Amino acid sequence: MILSGDASRATDGTAATRHLTLPLEGGDLHVCQDGPRDAPALLLVHGSASSARSWDPLVPLLTRAHHVVRVDLLGHGRSAKPDGPGYGIPEQAHRAGEVLDRLGLRRAVVVGHSTGGSVATALAEQRPGLVSALALLNSGPYLDAFIGGDVVPIEPEQWPELTDEQILRAMAPAFSRPGFRIPHDLVDDVRGMTYHSFVSTLRSSAAYLEERPLPDRLTGLRTPLLVLFGADDRRWGSASAEAYRAVPDARVELLPGLGHSPMMEDPERTATPLLDFTARHRES
């Protein structure tokens, strides 16, 4: 069942994004679709304190070859932000799989950014028949690779008082390309979260990695894997990307001059290896 649907207006001549709200256990999820419905499916999963909008610069480069699906994870963007449980990585992954089921998609390449890479990995663990291949963008492989400071950097009483300047300063380590201006949409995404959803997401991500590193989880899956890592990441040490080489046949590439969010900093350079990878592993 779909609660609502609409299409945003494109101003650059490209087809409009199709928006849906899907009622799922734990809360409604906002879903975006772009590109031909009969093309091979590509699911994009954003990182913590972000939303489906973080993929906006990359999506036009992907839609010629793919039916691109993006989801706002629970607690993010236009999805529900309940005060209770439900923010665990396996639970987020389960909902992402349900989204593909509701859309009638039986196989998809799944791409995750940062914490979204953990969600993508958990989905492959839960539903190996659904995930034809995985691509991880700047997803820390293990907790000790995190160099971004405290996992939860603020106190509850500070949350309502945060200014745009404070949010921008906190977000700065997510980007490294000189001259890159952080889109205000991303500030809105942070401000739109509740303190509970923000903290629960960060703690759940840390707990998932602490329980078992991503390369260990992926080694037994035999799912084709691409790892892209901005070489100048200031949140996850880029040298840690080497840990993914333990996964059989994994392809690992560093992107010089880019930071934690390469799909926004340089979408063209990010799209090139990603499209080469999906061309080898996509399924209609």
Please describe the topology of this protein:
Blueprint lengths: L3 E4 L10 E7 L2 E8 L6 E5 L13 H4 L4 E5 L17 H14 L5 E6 L1 H12 L4 E7 L26 H8 L12 H8 L3 H17 L2 H6 L5 E6 L20 E5 L6 H4 L1 H15 L3
Parallel strand pairs: 4-5, 4-6, 6-7, 7-8, 8-9
Antiparallel strand pairs: 1-2, 2-3, 3-5
Helix pairs in contact: 2-3
What keywords describe this structure?
Rossmann fold; nine-stranded mixed beta sheet; 284 residues; alpha/beta
Give a quick rundown of the structure.
This protein has about 280 residues and is an alpha/beta fold. Helix content is about 30%, strand content about 20%. Strand 6 (about 110-115), helix 3 (about 115-125) and strand 7 (about 130-135) form a beta-alpha-beta unit.
Describe this structure in words.
With 284 residues, the protein is of the alpha/beta class. It has one domain: Alpha/Beta hydrolase fold, catalytic domain (Rossmann fold), CATH 3.40.50.1820. 31% of the residues lie in helices and 19% in strands. It has nine helices and nine strands. A nine-stranded mixed sheet has the order 1-2-3-5-4-6-7-8-9, with helices on both faces. α3 (115-126) links the parallel β6 and β7 (131-137). The longest helix has 17 residues, at 195-211. 45% of the residues are buried.
